Amino acid sequence: xxxxxxxxxxxxxxxxxxxxxxxxxxxxxxxxxxxxxxxxxxxxxxxxxxxxxxxxxxxxxxxxxxxxxxxxxxxxxxxxxxxxxxxxxxxxxxxxxxxxxxxxxxxxxxxxxxxxxxxxxxxxxxxxxxxxxxxxxxxxxxxxxxxxxxxxxxxxxxxxxxxxxxxxxxxxxxxxxxxxxxxxxxxxxxxxxxxxxxxxxxxxxxxxxxxxxxxxxxxxxxxxxxxxxxxxxxxxxxxxxxxxxxxxxxxxxxxxxxxxxxxxxxxxxxxxxxxxxxxxx
Length: 281
Known about the structure:
5 strands; 2 domains; mainly alpha; two-stranded parallel sheet; about 10% strand; three-stranded parallel β-sheet; about 45% helix; 12 helices; Tyrosyl-Transfer RNA Synthetase; Rossmann fold
């Protein structure tokens, strides 16, 4: 993977030049991001990433598609720096592997553009703490952490403000989101509106939602939980980098049930239903 670094630097320089040229004239500006927290798995692909390639295929002349590997978001929880650098490269490689074309979509690493952090600080001056504390994703994350109130970090709390900066920095008009991120996009629109009203300007566009159909792919080892990059058991997920043999081994070891028939019943037979859903997709 480290052999990719010079190529990524060349790609980054070209992409950043395109960013400055294209976000002012495009009829539609689409922005989305993925964290570099491990190789994407099948759930990531069927959820968000396949929508990115569809948007690329259906883009009209003049549209701008911007996809970012959002490393600043990844460090809202503890990370090993060496592993994060590797994951960053793997994330970019995965985006290229699924069919994103640098000639048609802008692909870059968030932390290479310092304006993301700068704008996040400015927007943080408009974001009410009460509103941030009610973010469902934040409350869900804190609930799963074995920590006290003193261990809760500002970065995790202010995550939606950085996300707003990612979107508003490029005057994005459309953002593909799943149901779990819809609340964050509503906050982004509100922050943009507050800023524009405060300074009597049209500095920021108010981005619209591109609803992405939820394709809930579950863990192969615990089929009542979502497939996750952070699950301890590597056999719980199918990675985009897995070989045919690795995929076959994981499928054979997937948790099902003792029934001898095959039927789709997500409530009573979540394991076999998850495998059928994967086969269907």
